[in-house]
Prior knowledge:
Blueprint: E1 4-9, H1 16-31, E2 35-40, E3 44-47, E4 51-54, E5 57-58, E6 64-67, H2 72-80, E7 85-86, H3 89-96, H4 98-107, E8 115-117, H5 130-140, E9 144-148, E10 157-160, H6 163-173, E11 178-182, E12 190-197, E13 200-208, E14 222-225, H7 230-242, E15 247-254, E16 260-266, H8 272-278, H9 282-298
Parallel strand pairs: 1-2, 1-6, 6-7
Antiparallel strand pairs: 3-4, 4-5, 8-11, 9-10, 9-11, 12-13, 12-15, 13-14, 15-16
The structure holds adenosine-5'-diphosphate and magnesium ion.
Amino acid sequence: MSYSCWIIYNGFLKSDKFIDFANMFHHAANTVGDKATIYRNDEILTLIENNLIVNGKQVQRPDYVIFTDKDIYLAKQLEYLHIPVFNSSETIEISDDKIKTYQALKFANIPIPETIVAPKTYGLPIQLDHSYIEYVMDTFGFPLIIKETFGSFGEQVYLIEDEATLYKKKKEIGGKPFMFQKFINTSYGVDVRLQVVGNEVVASMKRVAENDFRANITNGGKMMAYTPNEEEKRVAVQASNAIGAHFSGVDLLFGKNGKPIVCEVNSNAHIRNLYDCTGIDASHAIIEHIHRVLENTNA
Ligand SMILES: Nc1ncnc2c1ncn2[C@@H]1O[C@H](COP(=O)(O)OP(=O)(O)O)[C@@H](O)[C@H]1O
Ligand SMILES: [Mg+2]
């Protein structure tokens, strides 16, 4: 069966990689005969009383939407109009929020670094109690990780070497939400990205940074194709399922004896780097998976 499909990306992020991501899906959807159209999030206006307005004109609902953006309100509006959105607004919301991801994974018994969630301060740049910091330091020792709740490309993840730096970093973060995390030192500068689609891992790569504890490619990490073992695949699929993702890029750290520990689950993981180093274009598997989901829903 063929469907009409919208691919939505963010109109305010100017980097070409976001358009490239949308184009990869466009190509894959057209390959299976779907009628795909790419829209920026700011071209679409939704009214919950059942109207979709695109560039000022009322339009028909698409059969499904691929949401490559994090405009969670728009994704939710589309869901209220009974349009299947991949990934769902809820999945994107959990993935975007590192504290929500930690909670979902921990609750599902999936290995994730020990974490202490910092208290909400309503945006106020309040310094934490000394007893609180003592507890964090006793639990994790140094170095430890401070991670802002919202961040990408490793830019809001900090390796903290001592107490003075901890207080300084807290001051810099101000009132933004964040968490403390155990530093998995066996994984310094190395992680693996497993692309999960449904219950399968379709492609994987290893990322190695030479001069940084963070393995992000944008941060200078080098990538190479990787063959995950059964345990790594199982943990990645469980993590993807735990946040309700139809597809996701799961990052694994190497714990003691190489045991996989989930670092994060990206609902909007870009698939270009994976394609460049493995030759596997995951967008095809994703579109096929969406077709299977739609066929099961309509059956
Ligand atoms: N607890 C940790 N222990 C060791 N390394 C970590 C830890 N958390 C993050 N990292 C490193 O930092 C990188 C970025 O962290 P991540 O949580 O994935 O943030 P981002 O969303 O910005 O990519 C990871 O790819 C990994 O290399
Ligand atoms: Mg990451």
